[in-house]
User: What shape does this take?
Amino acid sequence: MIWPLNSKPKYEPLLRDQAQAPSAGGLDLSLRLRRNRKAEWSRKLVRENALSPADLVWPIFLNEGENLREPVPSLPGVERLSIDEAVRAAAEAATLGIPAIALFPNTAPALRDEKGSEALNPENLVCRALRAIKRETPQIGLITDVALDPYTSHGHDGLLRGEEILNDETVFVLVQQALNQARAGADVIAPSDMMDGRVGAIRAGLDAHHFQAVQILSYAAKYASAFYGPFRDAIGTNAILIGDKRTYQMDPANTNEALREVAQDIEEGADMVMVKPGLPYLDVIYRVKDHFGLPTFAYQVSGEYAMIMAAANNGWIDGDKAMLESLLAFKRAGADAIFTYFAPRAAKKLKEIG
Ligand code: PBG
Assistant: This one.
């Protein structure tokens, strides 16, 4: 849609005898886009996009223990929660109108091994948290990450042989991991590993075990990003990660490839797709939503949150305003929902300002 910028009003003759609008240096100021912005009531009426708590997903870090909230220094305001605290957080999310939470475990170092075996343990941190939260707050959506990085001794999302991340062998394990989570009550399985073929394999596995209603949210366009640093601190993989993830996560230089990744995952049965990171990749979100039209999620990742918090804590920007502006940007780009560590704070602020 293109508006003619210099079109003269057709009723110009009628205006000829009337007082001319004030003009600056002979400029034709009959077109005044500021008119609609003159008061808050008017700005509200013409507003094109809106953010609501219902757009948010709250990522929560889990830790062993009881009554424990452990701060993550590189994520000011974010804590690792013991399961009982996570149960309370889920209830808070429901009260705030946040539809879903996403669970990420900080696995004890002793439980990590080459193969990420703990991912398949029905009593692992995530599975116990799923059952406990389902019992207390059944109305909240529970999203679980499928990838091996919280469980491997090398910090990679897949199985490692030499320097190679094995694709098909990893997919086989990811299906078992997804089933383990579904059995514990996960509503949405979110593979974030970027192996090829995992969405189709997980779908087939879920269906074969009567989990037809379990959704798949595929991290379809996930980039090899420097913005994941604080997340890796939170789940304890930063110090142990060998090398980087560039043989499976995407090159930040590419967007057409993101569309191929999304097309592949839709073909394999993804119900929703994710673009990640968020703000530096708004163009990718826009193209994915525009091209495919299916539910498109964005992840405002840990480094993005940390940047805003760092500036706000230094008094360099207004934290609340920057938070809401950054989240609204995702809506403008076409995102249907946003994973953000700001979720509870943003939901509270949105309620407050109405
Ligand atoms: C793990 C995973 C990562 C994130 C979500 N799931 C990190 C990674 O791929 O290394 C990042 C989230 C964030 O930075 O907030 N597969």
